[in-house]
Amino acid sequence: MKRYEQFAEQIATLIRQGVLAAGERIPSVRQASRHYGISQSTVFQAYYLLENRGLIAARERSGYFVLENARVLEHARVLENARALEHARGPEHAQRQENEPQDGAAHTVPTQVAVSELVFSVLESLQDTSTVPFGSAFPSAELFPLSRLAASMTRALRAMSPQSIGADMTSGHPDLRRQIALRYRLGGMQPELNELVITNGAMEALSLALQCVTEPGDLVAIEAPTFYASLQLLERLNLRAVEIPVDPDRGLDIDVLAERLARLPIKACWLMSHLHNPVGVSLDETRKQQLYRLLKQHQVALLEDDAYAELYFGDTPPRPIKAFDDDGLVMHCGSFSKCLAPGYRVGWVSGGRFAAAIERLKLMTSISPSLPAQAAIADYLQHGGLDRHLRRLRQRLEQQQGLMLAAAQQYFPAETRVTRPEGGYFLWFEFPARVDSLSLFRQAMSAGVSLAPGPIFSATGDFRHCARLNYGHLWTERSERAMKTLGQLMTANSGGV
Amino acid sequence: MKRYEQFAEQIATLIRQGVLAAGERIPSVRQASRHYGISQSTVFQAYYLLENRGLIAARERSGYFVLENARVLEHARVLENARALEHARGPEHAQRQENEPQDGAAHTVPTQVAVSELVFSVLESLQDTSTVPFGSAFPSAELFPLSRLAASMTRALRAMSPQSIGADMTSGHPDLRRQIALRYRLGGMQPELNELVITNGAMEALSLALQCVTEPGDLVAIEAPTFYASLQLLERLNLRAVEIPVDPDRGLDIDVLAERLARLPIKACWLMSHLHNPVGVSLDETRKQQLYRLLKQHQVALLEDDAYAELYFGDTPPRPIKAFDDDGLVMHCGSFSKCLAPGYRVGWVSGGRFAAAIERLKLMTSISPSLPAQAAIADYLQHGGLDRHLRRLRQRLEQQQGLMLAAAQQYFPAETRVTRPEGGYFLWFEFPARVDSLSLFRQAMSAGVSLAPGPIFSATGDFRHCARLNYGHLWTERSERAMKTLGQLMTANSGGV
């Protein structure tokens, strides 16, 4: 890459990251030359390139400005590049998976950098509120009892004593801890109170728990597909992913996991046993027990992400793998973000034998999640209302799932396959082989509809014909039209986009 | 170490960490033998050892129980061991500092594990509310307008729209961002709005910022003494500390820093330019500029911890080093925890050229700090009252500083030296050489008074005759008596504890 191309890339990155916003002036040729220590002609060449790419424009006598659509264009380009990369290594890659090398090394060193870029591009493009949010990771906040929570907050802050703030920051709000322990007991589990660490949402719980059981370079077994945050976290902590396939009907392939555990020095396993993101599948109890025995046999710690624990459609709450943990190996992570209080950022981990280490790491990293949020949720849980709210929420999500499934059947290509999860707010689609979900994403975004393309859920760029769609927002005419648009895009591109 | 000693150590650690609490039953000899795969006689020997140490006791026919004082005893033992370790390497260590090796390696690989244990022991012992909290890191929450904040919270939650929750989680509450930017402008600074990343307190800001500019193994210049959290964080991220001395009157020794920067591949510098913790000193503007030029010349990123920005006693707010940053090198970290809203956990970093990277890392680590807390603080800032509150707070802290200084003069040994910071809520004492602050800490804790012993502020176990005392709590008869107690302990131990 030549110097002017490098410099153009730097500016493009700033645009993609939103550091240089639409309408903003970029440094003049002279300023840039001085600031970056490059010649004026290099800067000029770089700006010429960026103009040609449609990212910036010169205005007479006032310099260069970022154009309105620059950011979207840059996202699209990153996606295209990632796709090109996949195409380039497509055939060998597929073959490599079939005839896996004996040491498993090639398969366990995934191309994570591209994934993280992809994920951020997708996340950033979702921020436009005029887009139909099928690609969102969150259910609509309108589904939650925000005004009742606000009343709880008012009451809780009145009761909060200044003297208790110090101690509560170290160990979490005591009423909240008790309420969480109580819900475990309702589910037939008896975790020790001192196993609970309150965190800034489940994300922080997962991040701390993973750090407590791994060192840089370690292998971690994750699902394929998987929640993209796990890929980003592994990348950041210099951990290597061993991908274990998830079957849409039965969940994680335990035989493959057993084989990998026997062969590779895996340090931890990270999975969702219930309402898996993105596939939506849950393990049945027999498989959960089987899985636990396997991990216990190898003394491998389990990071059980159970953020959707309360979003089941059936009559009885499924038990997590944690319910079978008689050896303190399971770190069970939960959250109120998806079932009660979005934006409050309160989660927890029931950390088993790692709880004390997780609490210490939390103190070193962020000290404590917000106390008013903890106190408000504790008050809400104490004064009842949660179960009634959850019943309504589940009913509503189940209805919305039905509406999205019906629309998919009506508008999507006939060969499309889809899961029918027993809860949550995601559907996982497998489109006909001619549909490339990254292309579809790009085209759909231009048409005002988002979706989560399959490759962001994999360290190896798989699931190119798949996508996750969110039905956790109120179903309206607009949703219906958006489904139709997606269907049309897939049909129009039947030649292979 | 024999097997039974190892096992005893495991149980003692659980007691120290509070996993096994006072009064709790520990596993029976038979259970422990089965669970840990060791012989019953090994377990028995271990329990016998723990009984002799005064940690557990057998009750007839009901097994072994943790004794009331076990945890405190264990803390004391850890402290003693750390002290013994220092004694053991004392002379060579001191000499090593004088005749420093050319490559600086020995001096830049500190014994951090012991420090972290020490810090946690001290922090845990502070949780007892019956103790006079001179060792605390926080000012009393009673100094803050908690009920006014609660009113702001109620108003803010009423105004919060469910639709905005998603976007606000990514980029922070927009009103809060604007208010923070406004306060920078009042101080004559013009940071770009998109340089601001809202975080879960200053601690998360510092943790994210440090990770964005370093890789494991890198060298980071820190102050000696320094805020202990920086030592813990460096330890956790496998970074190596290069300690730069802080002079109680003039602050960081810039000449030493210049020499180190010239000689060592230092990747970042972490410091407090204003009301340094624990010493209390501030750099004057000339030194701040000098320091900035030096860092800019070496293109070394600066992590400027400015958590006490608002706690100055003078008439005009001191400007941070960030005010001189024309190259985006300074990551300026602030917080509302120490000046307005303890326990709300809202801080920020004005991240310069690293802002976009910090924001991404935040999304991967904890997604977002609590939105209700952000909204409440934004409302409070908008509806005025902050400046009046701050004036009262500063006045009160200044009075309390005077009271503690007077008490120290009355009760502490005559040779004691003390700083007189122009703000904040800490005094840094240097006691006569015969006083060992770890011993003093242990004895003071038994007498119901806490303090922060010098060695927890150093990677190399220095400052053994120093201690930090907190005057940020209401000054009462009890405080007065506690100062007297400390003075008596130091006199009683004049033989050298």
TrEMBL record, chains A, B:
Pfam family, one: GntR
Keywords from the named record: Aminotransferase, DNA-binding, Pyridoxal phosphate, Transcription, Transcription regulation, Transferase
Organism: Halomonas cupida
GO-annotated molecular function: DNA binding; DNA-binding transcription factor activity; pyridoxal phosphate binding; transaminase activity
Record-linked InterPro entries: Aminotransferase_I/II_large (IPR004839), HTH_trans_reg/aminotransferase (IPR051446), PyrdxlP-dep_Trfase (IPR015424), PyrdxlP-dep_Trfase_major (IPR015421), PyrdxlP-dep_Trfase_small (IPR015422), Tscrpt_reg_HTH_GntR (IPR000524), WH-like_DNA-bd_sf (IPR036388), WH_DNA-bd_sf (IPR036390)
Lineage of origin: Bacteria, Pseudomonadati, Pseudomonadota, Gammaproteobacteria, Oceanospirillales
SUPFAM superfamilies membership: PLP-dependent transferases, Winged helix' DNA-binding domain
tRNA-binding keyword on record: no
Positions of the HTH gntR-type domain: 1-69
Name listed for the protein in its UniProt record: Transcriptional regulator, GntR family
Family per similarity comment: In the C-terminal section; belongs to the class-I pyridoxal-phosphate-dependent aminotransferase family.
